[in-house]
Every structure is written in structure tokens, then in C-alpha cells.
Amino acid sequence: MNNLDFFKALDYENGLEVVTKIFDRFPLQYAATIGLDEKPQVRPIEFKFEKDGMLYFDLAKCYRSYAELSKTPYLQICVCDDETNTYLRVSGKAVFCEDEEIIEMCFANSPLLTKQFGDDKKMIIAYFLTDVEAELASFTEGIPARKYILENSKDAPVGITIKKNTELRDRLLKLLEAREAEGNTATEMHTENVDKDTTCSVDKNTTESVNNVLFTQKLYDGALFLAAEKAKELWPRMDIRPIERAAIYETYDEREKFTNLAKKLLGNVVFDKPEDFTYYLNKETLMTLYKEKSNI
Prior knowledge:
- The protein is 47% helix and 24% strand.
- By secondary structure, it is an alpha+beta fold.
- The protein has 2 domains: 3-150, Pnp Oxidase, Chain A (Roll), CATH 2.30.110; 159-293, no CATH class.
- Strands 1, 2, 3, 4, 5, 6, 7 and 8 form an 8-stranded antiparallel sheet that branches. A two-stranded parallel sheet has the order 9-10.
- α6 runs antiparallel to α8 (204-234) and α8 (204-234) packs across α10.
- It is elongated and about 70 Å long.
């Protein structure tokens, strides 16, 4: 199979499979780290295997890259196919692992490692990546551009943090009150344009536009719920009922779905200034993050 056929055969809905198959096909990757002098360093590395959703690599404890990753555990890996002008970039946080079984698997998956170090496995330390983001791009027709977030059980908890600051509380309260005053405008638009007017045909563009408005509104409400519930932990007497009254969800499950989506998009955002709410808790920012992280 040539490289073009290889790329066209990939299941692009499965980000983990896309990454591992590309790494396996192109065994020489290049990784960028932050040097001890805080300048970028690039060197070849070798992907070993995937286990339980985690991408494993290794290095020798005597290598400078070990010192670099020990100090600043972030790296970005790039692999490129010059036949199709396609490249994959994968970034994440390196977490070291000295599990003997994992080290054995690294040697089993790399004749080069065995050739270099023989049976001296104590010289080697493995690492896997957490908080992984991947980007595939190509200049060849038929190979789609994709972005993925590859979650695994070792990822840092995703959520938001609100510092205990009364200015933050007051700004959030104003947002909740403004949302309640706005009312269910998106639901009303949906009802007016689609549900009630059954005698008229609604063109596809109009329906998609209405659906986009609904989705954006539900995502925004999810972000407000997320922030309100977090604030309630800090200020138990805080009234978060405005968002409960205004939200346009039809079921509790739908509310949880969009709250969790907002949590994933915002990542580990820390609100420590009132203007942080203005930036992150608005529809434009949320949809920008959604488009960046959802392959749309």
C-alpha cells in the first residue's frame, strides 16, 4: 500500500487510531522540547506503543532530553510524509514511568533500543503523554485536516477554578441575571421558524441556522451552569436560580451533556479577574473553542 492509499484508508473519526497508525507507519518522529537554557531543542524519537489509550515513548536517563523533560515536561512531536505532503503534530505532557513491564514492552517494540542498550534496562525510562492534542494537515486532496483531543485516564482533571473574590461573585450574578432577562429567545426562534409553521416549507439553510442558534445557546447555558455550580461551592448562599429558570434544556440529561461539553472546552480555566467571565462566558468564545476542538 502506498502512502496515499494508507492515508485514505484511515478512520478519521477515531483520533487515537489515526495517531498510532501514522506513528507506526513513519517510525522516525521529531520531538521539540524546552532546553535547560529555555531555548527549543529538536531531536528524533521513536514511538513505542499504545496501551489503555496512552502513547508510550522512552529515553535514556543519561540523555539531556531526560533532564529537559524533568524540568519542563511538555513536548510536541511531528512526523511528515513527503510523498503526500502530509504531517501530524502531537503535543502533550510527559509523565515518566519505571514500570518493569512497560520497559520490557519498549524493548520488545524496538530492535534499535535493544541494539543500543542490550539488557541494561535500568538505563531506560519510559514516559507516556497526557493532555494530548493532535493535528493532521495535508496539501493532498482527499486527506482531510483534523484536530483531536486524545483523552486518557491519566489526564489532569478538567474543570474551572474560581478564586474567592466578591468581585467575581458579583460579576457572575450579573451574567446570570442578564441571561434570565434575555429569556428563551432561541427556543422562541426555533418554534416560530420551524415548529409552528408546518404549512410552509423551511429551506435547509434556515433550519441549519436555527439549529446553530439553539446549539450555541445551549452551550452558553452549559457554561453558565458550570460556573454557577462552582460558585455555589464557594458561596453557598449565592442564588443561582436565574440560570435554572432561563436555561432552554428539555431534559436534565441534556443539561448535563452541555455542562460537560463546556467543562471540556474551558479546560482548567482559572477565573481570578472579573473580566475573565466576560471573555470566557460568552457565545463567541465558546463557539470558537468548540470549532477548534471539535473538527468542524
